[in-house]
Amino acid sequence: MKTLVIESAWISPHLETAGEILINLKKQNKKVKFAWVGNDLKWNDYSIPSFLYALGCSPEKRVDKFIKILKKNNIEIVNYNDQLNKILIEKWSNSFNGNLNDLKAFKYKKSNLGMGIASSLISLTNNKNFNTNSYKKKITGFLYSSAMVYERTIKILDHEKPNVVITFNNRLGLSLPIIQACKKKNVKIIRHDRGSNFKKFHLYDYDINDPRNLKNIYSDWKKNKNKNKNKIAKNFFKKKFNSTFLDEMNKNFTKNQIKNSKPITPKGKKIITFFCSTEYEIEAYLNLKFNQMKAFKRFFSEVKKIKNFHLIIRVHPSLSGREDHIWKKFQSKNVTLVKATSSYDSYEIMKKSDIVCAYTSKIVIESAYLGIPTICLKDFGWPKGLGILYGENKTKISFNLKKCLNKKIKFNLDKIFSVSYFYSTYGINYKYYNPISIRKGKFLNESLEWKSRIVIFFEYLGLKRLYAFLKKLNFHSYEIK
Q1: Stretch (H or E) spanning 228
Q2: Nearest CA to 111 among 46, 188, 178, 158?
Q3: What is the pLDDT of residues 389-410, one digit of tens each?
Q4: Nearest to 5 by CA among 29, 21, 26, 24
Q5: Which of 16, 4, 287 minimizes the C-alpha distance to 171?
Q6: Residue 339 and residue 332: Cα distance in Å, rounded?
């Protein structure tokens, strides 16, 4: 069986993860090759500002060094003829003239590359409704880059005829064209991304955030012989409740909340809390029909039928207030809005709730652990029989609310632990890449540095904030060259 690792993302740790996978396969005497398709592009997720090039920074140097290391370790590099019809690609990319929905539907040779561009820019702008006119030159440059990656991948697949392709993620503007090309050629795809912490990576058989990736959580838990697995599973909740849990990006969204604080709510009423997911992240998912607001409105209409209810809407604390306005319209005497920047303790709010509901927020596993009647409008793909109630149509929501109010719910702690254990441990430990932090590390004892000495010196002098400001300023003013 022939495996081909194709990459377009040069940033750490994704390039190093590709190297990790390649060398692991090589050590197993598997037939494996590497192809780099991210060179000489216009604008994309990983474009660096032009002023950094002027200061001697270069992603290309990083990629070149990576390829030299692979060659030293007997990894074969795919060379391909890059004589593509760039005029045709340029014409296609410049032909885009529409809104965000048009971009999501914009296709190149029947492959929906526009969706990847939309997903990337939603993430980069933290805005699910960004104005495409404001980013016109970035979009056309990104479309050009995406089509180039697609065409290069098609050419490589035709020549190499691999059985499996491994590549980074699946939804972004430079990774989606690799996925789309593989789908067109009926080649099996495995996606890689971060694991449960920055010292691990994870492999996905399906698009990331596809519930099918989680179908074996409970069976894997049952087979697991780790004597400490229950302790690890319980420790997940301990870290969550004492605000020390770090996600795969080393983030903690509750560390600045004041312990045991909560909003004042009317006495004698049923407290129902809805924990929001971040709108822009939901919108950036691919091929998954997610619509939090539509589902919430159905949920809200059913909640209003309950006598003596009081609803708390807890906006996700990761966005510093950027999404508060979306939820403000629901505020009333029966509805308390807890804004993103509020210092109220999310878990204290949870503990005082009669019912907890969310759309895709993983916080529902914590309320289930506490034995609080819990509704999740979207099914994660977790084991059935946890005790969490699923469904987003009105009939199902109404039924689930009544079930919660009657407290006719049985929670399966063993299955709950299988989920908390998974999120505590998922992923494969690196062997050949030594991560020092979320974005830094050494691959086979070598740093794949893209920054120049002068920029590193500026950082040493404490000018990181200036660098971040200039980079942000450049994102909004950058023009394709």
Answers
A1: none
A2: 178
A3: 999 999 999 999 999 999 889 9
A4: 21
A5: 287
A6: 14
